């Protein structure tokens, strides 16, 4: 069965997205990762997994937007020259 990431792994990924890619998505990912850590410590693993999935989705969206932005700039420069 597919094993989801730990809240700590999601937090690290969210921090990288915040610092290098798309801060709005990364910051919200950090919040969801911390919430997942809290739920995990309280013993509610179902809620922790749900928040990790949300954080991962936000991180993926932030990374995708960053890549699309870089591609758009590259294409604009190639067409403009």
Low-confidence stretches: none
Q: Which structural class fits the helix and strand makeup?
A: mainly alpha
- The helicity comes to over 70%
Q: Topology as H/E string? A: HHH
Strand count, sense and barrel status of the largest sheet are: none
What do the pLDDT scores average to? Answer: 92
Distance linking N and C termini: 51 Å
- List the domain count as a whole number: 1
Tally of strands: 0
The number of helical segments is: 3
**Strand portion, in percent?**
under 5%
**Radius of gyration over alpha carbons?**
16 Å
Question: Judging from the principal axes of the Cα atoms, what is the shape?
Answer: elongated
Give a verbal description of the structure.
With 81 residues, the protein is mostly helical. It has one domain (7-80). The chain contains three helices and no strands. The protein has helices at residues 7-20, 23-41, 45-80. α1 packs parallel to α3 and α2 (23-41) packs antiparallel against α3. The longest helix is centred in the C-terminal third of the chain and has 36 residues, at 45-80. It is elongated.
């Amino acid at each position: 069965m597919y094993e989801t990431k730990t809240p700590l792994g999601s937090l690290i990924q969210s921090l990288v997205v915040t610092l290098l890619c798309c801060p709005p998505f990364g910051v919200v990912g950090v919040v969801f990762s911390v919430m997942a850590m809290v739920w995990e410590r309280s013993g509610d693993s179902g809620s922790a997994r749900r928040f990790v999935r949300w954080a991962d989705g936000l991180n993926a969206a932030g990374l995708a937007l960053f890549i699309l932005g870089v591609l758009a700039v590259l294409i604009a420069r190639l067409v403009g020259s």
